[in-house]
Structure formats: structure tokens, C-alpha cells
Write a structure and sequence with these properties.
With 227 residues, this protein is α+β, with helices and mostly antiparallel strands. The chain has ten helices and six strands; from the N terminus they run ββαβαααααβααααββ. Strands 1-2 form a two-stranded antiparallel ribbon. Strands 3-4 form a two-stranded parallel ribbon. Strands 5-6 form a two-stranded antiparallel ribbon. β5 and β6 form a beta hairpin. It is globular and about 50 Å long.
Amino acid sequence: MVCRQPRYGWSINVYSHIKDLWQAHRCAKLILVDIPIGLPSKASRACDDEARAALRPTRSSSVFPAPCRAVLQATSHASACALNRGQLGKGITIQAWGIVPKIREVDEFICGNAEARKVIRESHPEICFWALAGKKPMAHRKKSKAGFDERTDLLGQPLSSARLIVDTAMHSYRRKDVAKDDILDAIVLALVAFSPKLETFPSSPESDALGLTMEIVYAAPSAPTKE
């Protein structure tokens, strides 16, 4: 996680659990996470559908459709697909299955903490970069050198210290603990969290069966964040 503290500048930390993140930053006005919050029960989430449409044709596959809540109790990809197909009419990708433990962790924490529910909201790095670029999807995959440079250069426009933050994170953590592209994702979410104006997919978000908002937050392109 990268966060901005007005008095002390930017800080870089890694938290193993959402509870640790919350304890460290419970005074924050907004915390953005790249994990689905609010899970569908009858159809795909509108926020996922709109985000994929916005990122076509190059980056739409980066948005994994959120699974139904029943999938969080599945013990295998096959059983997860069966459960999701029973409720939403389709299985889930192996990539989505890979983050189910984190989705479950965040879902249980948010459902059990009314205070955190007001502060922790869902975002998506590729949508944040899309908005930062004037609502244009990135041309290259984020794990490629071209993609890494493309996003770092874009971050440098509103954030002159972006390259320094990236370099500091690269030297502070091993790649097996923090991937290069995860650093960029964390920076852009932190940048958006300090935007004076936020927008969401969809513009009027719905709530799931437990009352959690199903949305993807991003910064309004007309209101870029400055240091």
C-alpha cells in the first residue's frame, strides 16, 4: 500500500491482512482497495460491465467479474464454477478464483465493521489509469516494460515524485513480496484517494444482498490531483 500523509509526504507499507491495514489507517477519510466489495446474487455487477466496456479493446480482460458470495465457501475451482453458474449463469476464471481468499477476507471484514464500511471502497488500477489518461485505456500490458514505463510516465504528470516512490518501493521490498506492477497500482489508488472529485462505475451504484455498495471508484478526469 502507498499512502499520502499531508504532514509527512508519502509512505510505503505492506499489510498481510485487511485488518492490519485498517488498524494502521483507521483515521483515513478514504481507503481504496483493488478487491471486489459487494457481491452479485442474480447477475453480473454493473460496475464490472461498465469498467470492461471502458477498457476495450486493450485492457478489458484486466477486470475480473466478481463472483457470487456462495463462491467464497468453495474448496476448488470446479465447485466455485458450479456455484457461480447456479446463481449468475456462468463460471469464474482461474484468475478470479486465485483472489477468492482475499475477496472472502475483505467481505467478512467489511460486513463485520460498520465504521470501515464507510471508509474502505473498491477501485481498480486500470480504470484509474484510464481516467488519468483522459478516459483512454493503456496501450500495453502492465507487466511488460512498455506498460510499466507507460504507467510510470502517466503517474509523473500529476505526481512529480512518482518515479522516486517507485524506486524506493523497488529497493525496499523483494519482488516475490511486492511485484513491480503492484507498486504502480498502489500509487494510482493513493493518488485517486486524494482527488477532489470522485466518480464511480456505475454513476448510481446498487447495493448487494447485504447492503454493500457495488462500485468502482476513480478520479474525475477534469479534476487531476496535484502534490
